[in-house]
Amino acid sequence: MRTVQDVLERPLHLENPSTYLELSASTMGEAEFLARLTEKAGCGLLLDVNNVFVSSFNHGWDAEAYIDEIPADRIVQVHLAGHTDQGTHLLDTHSDHVRDGVWSLYERLVRRTGPVTTLVEWDDDIPALDVVHAEALMAKDATERALGTNGANRPEAAGSAASANEASEAVAA
Amino acid sequence: MSALPLPCLLPLARFQSWMQAVLVHPDGARLALEAPELRRLVAPEDASTVVRDRGGLDAAQRLQIYAGMYPLRMRDALRSDYPALAELLGERGFAKLVADYVAVHPSRSFTLARLGDHLPEFLAGWGSPRRRGLRTDVARLERAGAQVFDAEETAPLDADALQALPAADWPKLRLRPAAAFRLVRVRPGAVDVLDAVLEGNPVSERTGRGRVEVAYYRRDFVVLRRTLGPFDGSLLAALAAGKTVGSALERAGGTFPGSLPSGEVLSGWFAEWTRLGFFSGDRAGLPGSPSGPSAGYSK
């Protein structure tokens, strides 16, 4: 990662994938892996909250613990998307509304990061623009809910844009 | 093969080879694990020590999720480069083509943009002989368009320098095609298929009579297509093949006797082709051009 960033002279941001199998040889969880990787490489993180939800379901992880373990100050952008429930597993299909469980994880994350650039991905069975736009506006509502429920909610990441003053501005927005 | 230790520390290269082979196996993941070539890498009974077996899905089922996605991904990649061919073959026909093609030409590049590089040649021997030529021509056109899209940007031939060339120098002039230029000779029906798909109309399997030359080129990052007439198509084909202007004119004149256009028409064609960026200015060797006389100018 450092080599590529040096060659490109640009910072890279890694995205967590949706996964459907784990390797027995793994010695650490994904959240810890990403935390260590971003720290050592000095790169950013593009956190796909839907992928956290999907992978956690597929592997029996604690999704909330994952969100809590991710280094908030490394998160440059967040992705949200819909998924498809196959019963035994979830598929990251980007073909539907963002599910309630994903919104909950998103709010949990925003309480740590403060306002963060968020992208709603809808790549298949794409509805009319106003439907997708409404989904994006729900991210705005979720952010305001996460930051505005009580005065004790402050983003914990020292490196995030949300200083005390900025958090107040976000609440007022 | 002896059982692997838990947790399985399979060497990365061996794991990658095994997983790749499982995902592309035509019989699906569960049967793939039993295949002799895969048993040599990982014994079937050891699969659940490589892949963590948890939460209701066993190792074969988890691998099958990826194995199921793989052909869909290949199909999406090829459909994006060959949309008219996909329309011509229909959903089932295209899916069969993709499965057969990828079995012979699996992805070997870091980019799926290269996956369909050999598709036209593959089509020449695939499927029913009926309309095979039309299918192949459609694919050749679409590949030309994709190649022009991805081609590097090269300096175009200087139109003023070309027009300033003395008449006596023209017969020996050799013009180099631009990197973002392709000329394809196809059945007219293939062009009709592409036009129908672009316009959202039903496609026809009529091949049409004879052959036409079709030029793909790029202007302001947009790929454009132009079907040429008999004489200008033949002339441009000869030029693109490296013939001098004089030889190209002779060949076109021989192919279409009595059709030699006037000097004014010829001059107009060259001016238009130069304006559209068909020719490269690199080492064109035109007198007065920055690069000066070179291998591009035949004396």
Commentary on this structure:
- The complex is a heterodimer of chains A (173) and B (299).
- Chain A is α/β, with parallel strands linked by helices and 173 residues long.
- Chain A has a single domain (2-18, 27-172), classed as Divalent-metal-dependent TIM barrel enzymes (TIM Barrel, Alpha-Beta Barrel).
- Chain A is built from 7 helices and 6 strands, in the order αβαβααβββαβαα.
- Chain A has a 4-stranded parallel sheet with strand order 1-2-3-6. Chain A has a two-stranded antiparallel sheet with strand order 4-5.
- In chain A, helix 3 packs across helix 5 and helix 4 (63-69) runs parallel beside helix 5.
- Residues 150-154 and 156-173 of chain A have low confidence and may be disordered.
- In chain B, 34% of the residues are buried.
- Chain B has a 3-stranded antiparallel sheet, with helices on both faces.
- The longest helix of chain B is centred in the N-terminal third of the chain and has 23 residues, at 59-81.
- Chain B is elongated.
- Chain B has helices spanning 12-24, 29-34, 36-39, 47-50, 59-81, 83-104, 119-123, 132-150, 159-163, 188-199, 230-240, 245-255, 263-275, and strands at 181-186, 212-219, 222-227.
- Chain B has 299 residues and is mainly alpha-helical.
- Chain B has 13 helices and 3 strands, in the order αααααααααβαββααα.
- The chains are: A alpha/beta (173), B mainly alpha (299).
- The interface between A and B is medium-sized, with 13 and 20 residues.
